[in-house]
Amino acid sequence: MIITRNTVQREIILQTVLNMDNHPSADDVYERLRNDNPSISRATVYRNLELLAKQGKILHIRMPNGADCFDFNTSEHYHLRCDICRRVFDIDLPKIPKINIEQKKYKDFTIEGYSISFHGICPECKK
Ligand SMILES: [Zn+2]
Ligand SMILES: [Zn+2]
After folding, report:
1. Where are the domains of the chain?
2. Interval between CA 89 and ligand 1 midpoint (Å)
3. What's the gap in Å between 80 CA and the centre of ligand 1?
4. What does each C-alpha distance from 51 to 35, 56, 94 come to in angstroms?
5. Cα 36 to Cα 39: distance, rounded to the nearest angstrom
6. Which ligand approaches the C-alpha of residue 63 most closely?
7. Closest ligand to the CA of 118
8. Which is higher by pLDDT, 65 or 67?
9. Which pTM was predicted?
């Protein structure tokens, strides 16, 4: 296998996400990487996060009430964003039945996916 600069950068980005257990946004990952890896651009981080998510190595979580974030836990689970501190938490709920979008069609639209997420107030903010 040929190890290119791209491969090395992607691995660094993956390792960074694996070491962040707080559902980082792309910007959070970039900020974390920046000091030690000044040659990696924000665009590179964004692009590689998308790629890693496509490869199934991380999860891309779409949060309607805030920035998208990424998760090293690739098992199926739900998320809750705190309305006050904006942090994203894993929540363990029974699986909601899947909506069948196999046709990927609604009228003239092409459906690429859907997401279910929750919001509320975390225990710390409740205090
Ligand atoms: Zn909170
Ligand atoms: Zn999660």
Report:
1. 5-126
2. 9
3. 10
4. 23, 9, 29
5. 9
6. 2
7. 2
8. 67
9. 0.82
